Amino acid sequence: MLGSSPDSLRVGLFSNIYRPIISGVVNSIDLLRKELLNQGHCPFVFAPRVPGYRDTHSGVWRFPSIHFRQVNYPLALPVWPPTHRAIAQSRLQVVHTHHPFWLGEVAWMWSRLRRIPLVYTFHTQYEQYCHYLKLPQAPLRALTRWSVQNFARRCDLMIAPSPTIREVMNEYGITTWTETLPNAIDLERFQAPRERISIRRQLGWPLDRPIALYAGRLGREKNISFLLEAFAHVPEACLAVVGDGPELPLLRAQAEGLGLGGRVFFAGGASYPAMPDFYGAADLFCIASTTEVKPLVVLEALASHLPVVAVAACGTADTLTHGQDGLLTPERLADFAGACNYLCRDDVERRRMAEAAGRTAEKYSIESYTRKLVDLYQEARRRVDLER
Q1: Is 231 helix (H, G, I), strand (E, B) or coil?
Q2: Which of 49, 105, 114, 261 could serve as 62's disulfide partner, Cβ 3.0–4.6 Å?
Q3: Residue 277: which domain range?
Q4: What integer pLDDT is reported at residue 126 of this predicted model?
Q5: Based on C-alpha coordinates, what's the Rg of the chain?
């Protein structure tokens, strides 16, 4: 029976967002859930209910929710007896939360009630998202930082998805036991060869021009406006933008204003299973965000043999090697556009970096990640048991 082996674990994964929402955090949780099952463990997901959506796999328990229009996410109502009964009956041995707020507090409560480890993965630099709330920004940022610090003190183990975010955590003054464990992906899904020309025809993309791809949420913090401005100076290439979000109307208008209407394709949101085709149809990947922790889209692009042009920032600077599998630039239009032009014009160099990109991706296997994480779960259990 699943979860009955002496070495198996019953793990509660708590998150403020889950399917059908498309995001890097959701993809991380779903990949972890699947791989925990593959390795003989028993994961349970606890997340907000999304109206009109029914889960396609077992082991997911939902809290009622209200809609948070500013970011198009449901907001969980954490006091819901049926879901709390499900948590109690799950006989959890580890609680792993992916957010410090809302359901993170529910995770903390159950970890204390059951005297089991509370693990928190620091996925998000929340201070960078305060602009979604129409409140004075300076005190809101200070409150956000204090809230994360306060939650971190109550955790038994913190997971830093990248070395640079570990430095951010140190700046926060977080002293909780922390391990750096980079995010991971399903390599096989993205490494499989794709019929590039056929996919471009289906998407209506040109066959005779280099295409740069951006994939992700279309929010102000993603710096896509900068990306469009840069592409006004990359005349030989097209830019495909895959994703949805509150900035989409403004970005469409900006592209038209810059005269990019015929060279920028807004593909809208795409399901996770559809993403390999988008990567397979492109020639390079571009990301200008300075707020990422360890973006899965960069790992997916590398696994798809796409060289990456990125603003050198947390999450990209510790993933890419400049001149090897991509190009890192300052947040300056001339530098970023120059890097894109270089890769678009030099087919030999682009192919060389594409091969190196595939080799870089090999380090980010979800199978290896999950084995390391389970070892950390077990060590956290041992430490909590010693403290009893």
Answers
A1: helix
A2: 49
A3: 187-361
A4: 65
A5: 21
Tell me if 2 is assigned to some domain: no
Count CB neighbours of 321 within 10 A. 14
pTM: 0.91
Note whether residue 218 is domain-resident. Answer: yes
**In terms of C-beta density within 10 A (0-12 exposed, 13-18 middle, 19 or more buried), how is residue 285 classed?**
buried
CA distance 201 to 128: 38
In angstroms, the Cα distances linking 72 to 109, 127, 173, 296 are: 27, 18, 31, 21
pLDDT digits 0-9 by tens, 277-298: 999 999 999 999 998 888 999 9
Mean pLDDT of all residues belonging to the chain: 93
Contact 137, 129 (CB under 8 A): no
Based on the fold, state whether residues 94 and 65 are members of the same structural domain: yes
**136 and 196 part of one domain:** no
Task: Specify the DSSP class assigned to residue 185.
Answer: B
Q: Domain check: are 340 and 270 in the same one?
A: yes
Helices 24-38 + 296-303 axis angle, to 10 = 70
Report residue 68's pLDDT band, with 50, 70 and 90 as the boundaries: low
Residue 373's φ and ψ, nearest 5 degrees, are -65, -40
Percent helix, strand, coil in the chain, to 5, is: 45, 20, 40
CB atoms within 10 A of CB 254: 17
Sign of CA dihedral 259, 250, 289, 324: negative
The sheet carrying 157-160 orders its strands as: 60-63, 42-48, 10-14, 94-97, 118-121, 157-160, 178-180
pLDDT at 1: 40
The whole-number average pLDDT for the span 358-365 is 97
- List Cβ neighbours of 316 (8 Å cut-off, separation of 6 or more): 287, 292, 295, 298, 308, 310, 328
128: DSSP letter: G
